[in-house]
Each structure stands twice: as structure tokens, then as C-alpha cells.
Amino acid sequence: MTIAIRDVREHELDSVLALNNAAGPAILPLDAARLRRLYENAEYFRVAERGGALAGFLIGFGAQAQHDSVNFAWFRERYPDFFYIDRVAVASRRRGGGVGRALYADVQSYAELRYPQLACEVFLQPETDHALLFHGSFGFREVGQNVMTEHGIRAAMLMKPLCSYAWVRDTYGGMLPDLPWLQRPYAHLAAPPARLREAHA
């Protein structure tokens, strides 16, 4: 079955919440209020759909976002510009079927036109070894570790350079062409994040 990646819709937030909280130890649980804040502030919030059902989602923020994640703050303290994958989850029945790779391919195609690096973390727990392998196969490398004291979790902090960024920056500056496939995945927001408004002023 084909995997379709598209912007999340507001009425799907309950389904996203359920998917997040059923994902296991690789991702922190959410409540509805926290998910609503992510929905209202994320630069990128897209879902994967397969066979007409929600199969996964991915949420991301640019480096200048007002985001209260401790792992996001860790990257902010060390790197001036990057795109941060805040969380990603795939429905258990869809794992191993390419949904995660489809989401990562989509977020990379978004980020590499706008940011020099892609950042994320993987929790260092026995149950999450597969996540390290997945990210390594996608080109991410560990740049440090961070202990999330509130949760008692140590995370491997990963980054991936985005090779197309320099060419896009040098060729287009902050004015990407007005093409359908370059449209921002923030249709759920009343207004796009400031960085993106400026890029298209």
C-alpha cells in the first residue's frame, strides 16, 4: 500500500496522542494540552497515512523556535542553525513497513532547503537499540549525550549534515521559488513561524 505524507489535521490530534502514548519507551508520553501546544507552534507537523489510516507522525522545529524541550535546548547551546526532530512515532502494526523512512525522507526534503543540519535524539535504553541503528543507517552521527534529569533518561544526541543546504542558500538566498512542492507544512497555524515569514517577505 502507498504511504502518503501530509499535514496533520486538527481533528486528528486525538489519534496522534493515542499513537504517541502507545509507542513505548522510545518516546516520552504526552497529554492533550502539550500536544496542542506542539500543534500550535511546530514548524513541521505531518502524518503518514497508509490504507486510509494514520500510520505515524513527525513533529519538528527550527533552531530559533520558542520550544521548551531540554534536548532542543542542548542543541541550541551548541549549534547556531539546525532543524530539530522533536518526536516521531509509527503505529506498531506499521513498523518495519517503511513508514519511518518515508517520514524521515519527507522531513529531510523540507529541512535541507532551509537548514544546514538535522538534529534529533535517541534514548539510550535496551529497548531502543533499533532506533540507533535506524538513525545510523540514515546518516546521523552522535555528537554528544544529554541526561534528561526530570525523566532519568540518557539520550544520544544525533546530527546529520544536509548537503543540499549550501547550494540552495547560495542560489536562492531566502527566496525559494513559489512551487507547490515547496509549500510549507504549517497549514494548521494561523501564521507561519517568524523565520519563514521573513524568508518569504
TrEMBL record:
PROSITE patterns: GNAT. SUPFAM superfamilies: Acyl-CoA N-acyltransferases (Nat) (SSF55729). InterPro entries: Acyl_CoA_acyltransferase (IPR016181), GNAT_dom (IPR000182), UCP028520 (IPR016890). One of its GO terms (molecular function) is acyltransferase activity, transferring groups other than amino-acyl groups. Gene3D superfamilies: 3.40.630.30. The keyword Transferase applies. The keyword Transferase applies. Residues 3-164 form the N-acetyltransferase domain. This is Predicted acetyltransferase, GNAT superfamily. Keywords: Transferase. It comes from the Bacteria.
